Amino acid sequence: MIGCTHGNLFKTTVAGGSYQEGLSIHIQGIPPGYFFTEEEIYVELMLRKPGQGELTSPRREADVPVIYSGVNAADTMPGFKNAGYTNGTPLVILIPNVDRHFEHIEQYQLTNRTPRPGHASYASFRKYGIWDDSIGAGIFSGRYTSTIVAAGCIAKRILKDHGIGVVSFVREAAGIRMKDMPVDEIRRKAAAYREVRKQYDPIYLELYASGKMKKEMRFFEKMAILADLEKRIPEIKKPQYDEEAVRKQYDINPKLFCPDPETADAMYAEILRIMNEGDSSGGVVEVVVTGVPAGMGEPVFNKLDGELGRLMSIGTVKAVEIGCGTEAARMTGSKCNDAMRMKDGRVVFMSNNAGGITGGLTTGQDIIARVTVKPTPTIAKPQLTIDKVSLENKELAAVTRRDPTIVARMWPVVEAFTSLIILDTYMLHTAYQNMRPE
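Predicted structure:
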């Protein structure tokens, strides 16, 4: 398989599948001297993993990352304090699968001949034939997005050190759309949402808050902990919390990250209504990038808005908009153009319909992009399909475990992938600018 690598200077390669032993992330281009912990990577991973409520499938993957290589195993010389820091070699992160039960594999085996409409299972069978990894949809499962989130966590940390922030959220779900909100407020709500999830995530409490999983442990020690976790994961109870108290303290809906809690409540209710009818729903995720310098991007074929179009590589994403997006078709030039003025010695834009990008280059404004997420293909209604081996007509009913919507889990993936794109572009921009003659 080709196509599993992204980036030029910050290069990420992912591998693995839903029911393989796990997934892996191989990152080149991380500068030496960074200290990353598995705990901080897990905090991002827990935002997109399943098994956390009515809006996700019941699969309870732990999504525990293990840093395998790319950091110093110990202080390299007397007087040096560099143990655990990146050393300039590729960083490899593993995410073992720990919720693979044989009864679920049997269910997939029994239904794999009849592909789910709207899913990749038919096209992947045509491409890979009988060797297609169709147990749990393999790399075409949403499970692979954990690799993007892990890599994006690393990219986001590096960007932050250079004054660039990336934040994402659910803008629309099940036809209900959120009103505009200042980005600083969105960022504050995102931090609150992460904090709440940490406080009540059973794996975080079991492994990290308890101190059971430590970064300095050897690989086999960590694997022993995960082997024990695999046996006990069905028994680990989710902590109960007072939802009203959480809402009052943090001003968020703890079940769905739309920064406006009233809109989040309406989204949640509509998603469940559609689910109870045996169907699924889609939505829109918005991502905002702040602090980028002007002039960043590489025309002609690597314009930044074109690079952001790679967000289409995320499964279930059917469209990407920059700025006003498709609304531009219904605007006049005088309305669409972002007028400019000078104020206190700097350029000020009167609007941001361009989404912070013109000619494929950043303007210095916030970059704003939105991705359209389709409804989950797996639904509890009969669907017309075929037997992909015998090519006979068939009918498909409900299939094993499912998400009523993907958008609730998609925003951290969009945030992460955007971070990969922005960091790679920023590194190219910085290298190019620094080559200028004095």
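Summary: The radius of gyration is 22 Å.
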